[in-house]
Amino acid sequence: MNGGSRHPAAREERLAGLLDPVVSAAGLELESVRISRAGSRSLLRVVVDSDHGVSTDDLTEASRAVAKEIDASDAMGGGAYTLEVSSPGVDRPLTEPRHWRRAAGRLVRFSHDGSALEGRVVSADDTGVVLEIAGGRREFGYSGLGAGQVQLEFDRLPTADDDGAGLAEEVEPGGH
Questions:
Q1: Which of 16, 132, 133, 141 is 20 to 30 Å from the Cα of 124, by its Cα?
Q2: 157 close to 97: Cβ distance less than 8 angstroms
Q3: Domain containing 44: what range?
């Protein structure tokens, strides 16, 4: 397989293998690598994250390191490309334990056994998540938990000492 492969998934996998150690050396985790077309150029989107958040300085450092590594290889096949390095947006679904862990203190909507629920993430580990729902704490294993979605709260910002009390409710499927 060469960098000019017409199979985007194979190129993305190759790039992820190439970039993971570079991103890790910058103190971040590689979340995803995506290649798409943007006119005559390729658009390479690299998403990074960490448990402590991602600052603009982190993104700048990662972007420089990623560009250097790509330019030193044939991973993009020698063609013109645009590099975009970013952190996940609030709209990223919570599908992995690390996503739930990083959402601690945030209000999330999720499904469990066919019911749509909303609650505040209290904690998460490799086996499940604890959520504050309607004034009580409930534990959920990931096996029965659908993807979560962080809810935007314009009237309340999470704080470092947030215990998640009092701001959760059960919702009807499709309701807001």
A1: 16
A2: no
A3: 8-86
